[in-house]
Structure formats: C-alpha cells, structure tokens
Amino acid sequence: MEPKPTTDGVMRRIRPASFIYYPYATGTSSGKEHIREELVRLGVELSVSVAESMFLLCDDIHTMLWFCFKLWRYTLPPSDPVSERLLRVFHYVYSKDIKPKNTPVCCPDGGNSVQWEFVKTTWNDFTEGVIVLNRLVLLLRKKDCSFDDRLLSSAVEKYKQQVLKKLEDKLVSTKDVSELNGFARETVACSISYLWKSLFDDEDAAGEPSPEVTRDRIISDLFQHILDDSCHCEILSLPVTSPYILGAEFPMQGIREEVVQLGVELSLCVAESMFLLSDEIWSVLQFCLKLWRSVWRFRKTGSPVGERLLRGMHHVYSRNIKPKNGVYHSGYKSVHWDLIRTTWEDFVAGIRDLHNLFMRLEVNGTSAGGREYTSRVEELLKKVKEKLRCAKDVSEANGFAREAMESNILGLWKSLFNRGTEEAWARNAMRREMLMDLFQPFLKETEEAKQQH
User: Fold this and answer.
1) What residue segments make up the domains of the chain, in order of their start?
2) Cys bridge to 277: 106, 284, 407, 440, which one at CB 3.0-4.6 A?
3) InterPro entries attached here (predicted)?
4) What's the pLDDT score for residue 109?
C-alpha cells in the first residue's frame, strides 16, 4: 500500500487512564479545537482497527464485505460524517490491498472466513466505536454548542480506554495472521489519515463531487457483488445497541464521578492536615471534631458525604497517628495549628457543597447546576492546597504519602452512589465505633479539664 504524503496518521499507544484527567481547557474555543484535533486522530485509530479486521477476513471476500456493509449501513445514517469516512476507509483498503483481480472468491464450501468467529467478538466494540465517535463529532460540529467541555473530555477518555484500547487488546492476539495477510499498522494509519482531515471542514468544496455522488460510486464498487449475491444472514442479524458513552445517563454519571473524585481530594487534604498536626494528637482530634460537627447539621437527612469523610479521618488516624502509649495531650497546641485554622472555612464550605450536590443528584434526580457546585468545591480545594503547600515537607516528614493513600481513600468513596450497599443498622454501628475511637479520649480529657477548673 502506497502511503499518502502525510504524518498525521502515525499511531499513538493509548495511555493508561489517570485518576483525574481533564486535558482540555473548560469553556473555551481553544478547548474545543483541541478536542476536534483529537477526534481526527481517534478516527484514524478506529479506521486502523477496521482495516486490521478486513485483513483478518480477507480469506473470504464475501464475509469481509458483508461485515463492512453491516458496520456501515446499519450503525449510522449513511450521511453522518463518521459514516461517510468509514465508507471511504473500507473502499480505500479494499481497492488498494484486498480486491481480487478477478471476481470475488468465497470459501470453497461457501462458509465463513477462518477468522470470522474471532472478528465477531469485536462487533459490539466496533459499533460502539463508530456510534460514540459520531456523537462526539456531531456535538463538536455545532458552532453554538454549549455542551460542557469537561464532559466531552471525559467522553473522549472513556472512548479511548473503554473502546479503542479494548479493540486494540483484542486484535493483538491475531496480529500474526493479519500481518501475514498484508496488514501493516503504521503504513495503513499514514495512508488513510487524509480521509479524516476534513472531518470538521465544509464538505461542499468547489469542484469536488458531492458526498452523495461519491457515496453512490463507492457503494457500487464495494458492495455490488454481495448485494447481487446471497446475503450473509449471521452478519445481518448482529445487534446494534446504543452505547452508554454520551447516552442519556452519561451527564448524570459524569457528575457523579466528579463528586467521587472531589471527595477523594477532600479526604486527602484532610489527611495531609492531620499529619501536619500530628506532633500534638489533641490538635488532630480537635481538627477532626470541628469537621465532623460541620457534617452533624445534616443528621436529619443523612449525609453519605459526611460518612465517607468520617471513615477517611478514622482510617488515617487509626493507621498512622493514633498513639500507642495512650498519651493524647502534651499541653501545647500543634506547631501548625494556626496554619490549619486558616483552612477551616474552606473545608466546611467544601463539605457543605459536596453534600448539597449529592442530595441534588440522588434525591432530586437532576444534574442541573452540578457544574456550579463542582467548580466551587474545586476552587475551595485549590485554596486549601495552596495553604498546605508551604508545609508540605513537614507533612511528608510526618508520614503523609499522597499516592500511597489515594487508592485506600478512593475505596472509601467509590460506593458513594451505590444505594443499599449497607444496612442502616450496620452503618450506624460502624459510625458509633469510629466516633468512640476518634473522639472519646479527647472528650474525656476535655471534661476532666473542665472539672479541675
């Protein structure tokens, strides 16, 4: 296959997902432009996987062409932008590398390609890849699109990790077969990238044939033989389902995931503050009690956000800070007490906003206004982190390790929106146990000090 003179199609390995990743500026035209550029690259990546499947099936042209026809004709409307380019990819790969010099030849017994059973396992991944990419493209083609850039960014990341990487991982198991049949990943990517360059351009270029004319010509050249022949009933019966990504539930789920992420960040900031105060256990407990009292105001409605905050504090305290000798109070405030006091209002406001957003999502069943809440919490956490940064060396010297703690804290928050995972009595018993372990020594010494005075 002779590559086109471009390097835009060079394939990139899909990087592992990070915990919090918003690679595009939110609410800016430049942010959307970066996403557009990314979608062009993702279109090339999807096309390369399609081409690889075509090479896997090329021992039986009948099977290969019905696979292409079903993926093109029954997944999207033919005039949609991704559908148009997918058809051109089929035609380019077929005419350049696979089309037999004589009439198409099927398997001698009229059966399937040897690799059909394997390629069939990728069908749902391909249909999801085509539909989700088209949803993204249609959203970005709207010049007045007010769709949340952060949600778009989340959709792009999920698309790469849950669709393209999944396809890549499956196809690698038959790499030897496809390459033996003539498939060369880098060459294919370079050759077909030009087909995607115009994804966000005006299709009606002067002097160019209309998309309808081009489509009809390709359909005739690509599918005429099989449309005049017997159909491949098994391929035609393959289902096409609506993917989750950018579906009806996606905006709500996206905000839920952000709430969980922000909860983890909140707990990590609380943990860092506890380590800063750990030169005086009394100060640690006083800080934690202050935060718990800010949650207690929600006791009538309950606060799963507050519950996870409590579990995070107890986890850090019992694992890392709780004194072995039973001495809680040295008679002095922590050296960093005054610094931590400056963060109280930010912590309390962040807890309140997270709680209110949780109630809006779970009780009211709406994500409307969710971005306003998450933006406020992000700003509050940013302020807290800036204040704590000046004492970072101290907290780390006292044992704080953000990365090591992150997975444990995430484990406490990831069930935030899972209803019914715990019985009420078990939850109440756990709360009482943690409160006793955390605050009884502190409250006992406080009461004794009052009696002495």
Assistant:
1) 29-236, 250-452
2) 284
3) DUF1184
4) 45
